[in-house]
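Minimal example, chain plus 2-phosphoglycolic acid.
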Amino acid sequence: MLYILNQKSHFTKEELLLYRKEIEKYPLKDNVVFAPSTCFLPLLEGFSLAAQDVSPFQVGAYTGDVNASSLASLGVSYVLIGHSERRKYWKEDIDLLEQKIRRVLEASMIPILCIGETKEEYQNGKTIESLEKSLLIFERFPQEMWKNIIIAYEPIWSIGTGKSLEKESIEKIVSWIKGKVLTKVLYGGSLYFPLIQELRKNTSLDGFLIGGMSLKVEEIIRLLQES
Ligand code: PGA
């Protein structure tokens, strides 16, 4: 099981160093992957690392961008692509996401493509339609590469809201995704430890994308001890 800890745009340097001090009392695990703000990645050197985003461009004159090879040189193994917050605030579209995925693969890292339905789509029974649309991006890559792109299924209405999809629906949707694209599938959206324990019993899930919970040091220690 893979656990990606998306810390989003939280923490100061001092706060993250305190967090690190607590966490490193426990044995590190490769499958527990920290995704701090890009500027803080070096502060977590030695931990398994993910980036929250990447430039669609290669090395060059792109002020403000952080390219994939820079991330790889910091020891980053995974990169989130198209998180709903980036799609919402930065209007990221399929063409941009394709370029980002290509850059990540070229740098020998693993892209984690985030997909999920909006509240409106969920309420109108359009979840599958919405996911189908998001999965069209795979057609831009040869089928033998699909297994190199992890999918994170996160209902958008569930992110940061404390609301969660029922276990049965998660299982159904994850199986449906795997029927379409044979790759690893993570689940995310308002996860907390007991829910993770419950969902772990679902054998088709390959892991979790964790937001808010990843900020709580005691929860992450539990994860390190019990995962
Ligand atoms: P959440 O965030 O766990 O706080 O809902 C998940 C995510 O945005 O990846």
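The first strand starts at residue 2 and ends at 6. The pocket of 2-phosphoglycolic acid is lined by residues 6, 154, 159-160, 188-191, 209-213 (CB under 6 Å).
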